[in-house]
Design goal:
Layout lengths: L6 E5 L8 E11 L4 E6 L2 E2 L7 E2 L4 E2 L4 E2 L2 E6 L7 E4 L4 E7 L13 H11 L3 H15 L14 E7 L4 E7 L2 E6 L3 E4 L11 E2 L3 H7 L11 H5 L13 H11 L6 H8 L12 E12 L7 E4 L11 E3 L18 H6 L11 H15 L1 H28 L4 H4 L2 H17 L2
Antiparallel strand pairs: 1-2, 1-14, 2-16, 3-8, 4-7, 5-6, 8-9, 9-10, 10-11, 11-12, 12-13, 13-15, 16-17, 17-18
């Protein structure tokens, strides 16, 4: 199952520079799937009798939801990755193990990412939200548009102060509190360090014959087919990702995380039928007087994309150029044969046109990449200045991400037309 995955990373002080938690994720999906970046404001829900429609099922609503920024496959309700106004970040991974994956429609892992962000103001509370929803509604359903593709999920959840790994198999789960640096990929990775767990998780493994009840309990050994002794010596992307984090340990910045997500030799920057369709990096200062900054590409191929910053402030401008056209999923899925609608948002369209120009001309490719890196460098320096000087121009920040998107589109248009 190695190709069907993502990679999610976190680094905590003292592995990072400047007392910051750094979060990063590549979303690896089908090559033609469009991922959009959207902002959803905080909301109060007075009519709790009205159910919340997720991708496939309806669930109970809560009295209040927090503002979120999401990078999500444009056809569904949930998200591959995102952040909320309290500095909580979540990314999920596809995992497979001994337990058969349920194809029955329930909550997708991507729904659980969004629900955790909307309903929790700390990383551990987000973990609580996800496992409570798992227990009540379960996880399952098709995870790809128009194709059969189902999996269980692992999650990396971070805030300004701490991070958690949550790995699930059906309704059973184990959680590990992160120390230093940590990453997850498409395999179970929690072994004997288990800080929280489903109350019946060990007993279920024993009943299934996955654990003899005498040896130290190892979640990965019990619930997956992985030989945990070889986990850190293999050529898997999980192993390669950990090596990259460890290589930069003590000096990790948001620029470092972006370069890790762009790394091709490790396979983390994926290309092929499944490729890196979108990327995210977040910097979460432990100093609560400083803003959390979240960078999104909204486009595939991170080495040929720009990481653009988003900061939560009141009255944020809507992210129109990274919002896909809306279609009714149920009506479309009912049609036979199923034909995927064109979900490309404006940034995606211009980016794809630019990639075509780049592939046809080395000279144009270099010019365009130079301009893209110059834009990104200027933005990174501006964000670092905000973190160093503690000065936030709110009037400018409300339009920060949309303006950066427009600047990126200008680069594409000038090279497409030349």
């Amino acid at each position: 199952m190695e190709p069907y995955s993502c990679d999610t990373f976190v680094a905590l002080p003292p592995a990072t520079v400047g007392n910051r938690v750094i979060f990063g994720k590549n979303s690896d999906r089908l090559f033609d799937e469009v991922q959009e970046v959207i902002y959803c404001p905080a909301a109060v829900h007075n009519d709790l009798g009205k159910r919340l429609k997720c991708t496939y099922i309806e669930i109970d609503q809560v009295p209040e939801t927090y503002a979120v920024v999401l990078s999500r496959p444009a056809w569904l309700w949930g998200a591959e990755m995102g952040a909320n106004e309290h500095g909580v970040c979540i990314g999920n991974e596809a995992v497979w193990g001994r337990e058969n994956v349920s194809k029955e429609e329930a909550l997708l892992g991507m729904d659980l990412v969004r629900l955790g962000l909307e309903r929790a103001d700390t990383a551990e509370k987000a973990l609580d939200v996800i496992v409570d929803l798992l227990e009540k509604y379960g996880q399952g359903g098709n995870c790809a548009e128009g194709e059969e593709f189902s999996y269980y999920n692992s999650f990396l959840i971070a805030d300004r102060n701490e991070a958690w790994i949550l790995e699930t198999s059906g309704k059973y789960w184990a959680a590990e509190k992160v120390q230093g640096v940590r990453n997850i990929s498409n395999q179970f990775s929690i072994t004997t360090k288990i800080d929280r767990e489903h109350p019946d998780m060990r007993n279920y493994a024993k009943q299934k014959g996955w654990w003899d009840g005498r040896e130290d309990f190892d979640f990965t050994a019990a619930y997956s087919y992985i030989n945990t002794a070889s986990m850190m010596t293999s050529s898997s992307r999980y192993c390669q990702g950990y090596k990259l984090l460890s290589k930069h340990k003590g000096n990790i910045t948001f620029e470092t995380m972006a370069e890790i997500l762009r790394d091709k030799p490790s396979g983390i920057n994926m290309k092929g039928e499944f490729l890196t369709t979108a990327s995210m990096v977040s910097v979460l200062p432990q100093d609560s007087s400083l803003p959390c900054i979240h960078f999104f590409t909204g486009t595939p191929h991170p080495e040929r994309s720009v990481f653009k910053p988003f900061i939560f402030v009141p009255h944020v401008s809507q992210l129109l150029d990274t919002k896909s056209p809306t279609f009714e999923l149920e009506r479309l899925m009912a049609k036979k044969p199923y034909i995927k609608p064109d979900r490309r948002h404006l940034l995606y369209q211009k980016h794809q046109q630019a990639l075509e120009v780049m592939s046809n001309s080395k000279e144009n490719s270099k010019t365009m990449l130079d301009h893209m890196r110059k834009l990104e460098k200027e933005v990174f320096e501006e964000m670092e200045s905000i973190l160093q000087n503690k000065h936030l121009d709110v009037d400018k920040i409300v339009n920060l991400f949309p303006q950066c998107v427009k600047d990126e589109i200008k680069i594409y248009q000038s090279n497409i037309s030349s």
